[in-house]
């Protein structure tokens, strides 16, 4: 019997779902190298490889066989070939721009443990998709809003969430659509660097975000009486500002967010919140030119920088802080702890804080490979984001479950936070 790759699901899976990988038809104890390859939409190649030895029956199941030293990872890692994918061109982060098309994953089984490995023994292709069948993608251009709404299959109304990314701008949709696969109506909202929105993030007006909140609250497919907010990085402090000043917010989840306004002036009616001060002298640059910026921001508890602290005690919602303990973008754990102190000092409910040791800044949906370093648009140079790949991957799986359970509990009144997958 010739060697062959066996996948489950066989041909297609959602990007955030586990993929079972096995090889059959090998010789007893045969040594092979498995290689995974994926090209992003610009054609850039991401690859990972691992060394294995088949069992005495010629079977190799990644759920039972540990990878041997010498590849991209070692040990028992059923999803290692996905989370260990690395760009062949440095400083590139894997993102998905068109969620309507899948990523195509190539898997190869190669002879031996040489470098380079030997001849090709077997190969397979697999689609890693972002939209479950029946999820509707609706571009939104109402008033000033520039967004995309994802609606689950079936008859609503569904619990509603607004999803915000960080200082990179544009309109990333992949987290919003993956979340919609699990029964949420999710609005991916752009706030600069997209279509006719401002090209740069110099000044932000909460009235724009209020328009998006009202759009969701009035939508016939969105279950009231309030909605949820989900934000990463700069999107996190925007979510805190929205929860603090706007009505109709029930639950706010932040991924490595700040409790101070960062990067741009924030205005709402007659209120102005200045951005937190920055001291570029506190940037550390290594020999290769990579910058560590974790100490650059001023302390929002001291001096005039206290004006940048967002008054989250005004919020009438539940908070969840997801923290990567090795975040090198800024001090996410400090921000979460200070946010909790401020809330409790004002008699508010203590927020949930979930801390992941070994996780860096970009905590994405499950199985996105960790981005160790890339260009930071606001800093204008390549920076390190922190994290250790295996721990970071585990954090992404855990955080994804925490976020869904948090929104189920507070938007659906489901105290157990459990749900059947659609």
TrEMBL record:
Keyword Lipid metabolism (UniProt): yes
Domain Acyl-CoA thioester hydrolase/bile acid-CoA amino acid N-acetyltransferase as annotated: residue spans: 16-142
Any one biological process term the GO annotation gives: fatty acid metabolic process
Protein name: ACOT1 thioesterase
PANTHER family membership: ACYL-COENZYME A THIOESTERASE 6 (PTHR10824:SF17), ACYL-COENZYME A THIOESTERASE-RELATED (PTHR10824)
SUPFAM superfamilies according to UniProt: alpha/beta-Hydrolases
Protein family according to the UniProt entry: Belongs to the C/M/P thioester hydrolase family.
Top-level taxon: Eukaryota
């Amino acid at each position: 019997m010739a060697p062959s790759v066996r996948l489950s699901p066989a041909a297609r899976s959602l990007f955030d779902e586990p993929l079972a990988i096995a090889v059959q038809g090998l010789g007893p104890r045969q040594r092979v190298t498995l290689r995974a390859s994926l090209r992003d939409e610009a054609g850039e190649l991401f690859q990972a490889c691992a060394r294995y030895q088949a069992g005495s029956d010629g079977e190799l199941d990644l759920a039972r066989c540990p990878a041997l030293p010498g590849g991209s990872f070692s040990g028992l890692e059923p999803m290692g070939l996905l989370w260990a994918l690395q760009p062949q061109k440095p400083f590139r982060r894997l993102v998905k721009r068109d969620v309507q098309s899948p990523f195509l994953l190539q898997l190869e089984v190669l002879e031996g443990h040489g470098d380079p490995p030997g001849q090709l023994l077997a190969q397979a292709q697999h689609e890693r998709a972002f939209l479950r069948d029946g999820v509707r993608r609706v571009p939104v251009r109402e008033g000033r809003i520039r967004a995309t709404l994802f609606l689950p299959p079936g008859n609503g109304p569904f619990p509603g969430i607004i999803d915000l990314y960080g200082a990179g701008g544009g309109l990333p949709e992949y987290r919003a659509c993956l979340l919609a696969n699990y029964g949420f109506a999710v609005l991916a909202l752009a706030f600069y660097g997209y279509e006719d929105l401002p090209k740069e993030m110099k000044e932000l007006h909460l009235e724009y975000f209020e328009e998006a909140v009202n759009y969701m609250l009035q939508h016939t497919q969105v279950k009231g009486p309030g909605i949820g907010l989900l934000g990463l990085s700069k999107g996190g402090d925007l979510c805190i500002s929205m929860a603090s000043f706007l009505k109709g917010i029930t639950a706010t989840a932040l991924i490595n967010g700040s409790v101070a306004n960062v990067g741009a002036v924030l205005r709402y009616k007659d209120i102005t919140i200045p951005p937190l001060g920055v001291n570029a002298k506190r940037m550390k640059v290594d020999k290769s030119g990579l910058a560590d910026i974790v100490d650059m921001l001023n302390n929002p508890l001291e001096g005039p920088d206290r004006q940048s602290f967002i008054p989250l005690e005004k919020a009438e919602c539940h908070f969840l802080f997801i923290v990567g303990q090795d975040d090198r973008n800024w001090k996410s754990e400090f921000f979460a702890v200070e946010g909790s102190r401020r809330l409790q000092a004002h008699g508010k409910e203590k927020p949930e804080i979930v801390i992941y040791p070994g996780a860096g800044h970009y905590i994405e949906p499950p199985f996105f490979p960790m981005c160790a370093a890339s260009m930071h648009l606001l800093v204008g140079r390549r920076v390190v984001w922190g994290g250790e790949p295996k721990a970071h991957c585990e954090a992404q799986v855990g955080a994804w479950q925490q976020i869904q359970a948090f929104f189920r509990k507070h938007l659906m009144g489901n105290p157990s936070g459990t749900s059947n997958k659609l």
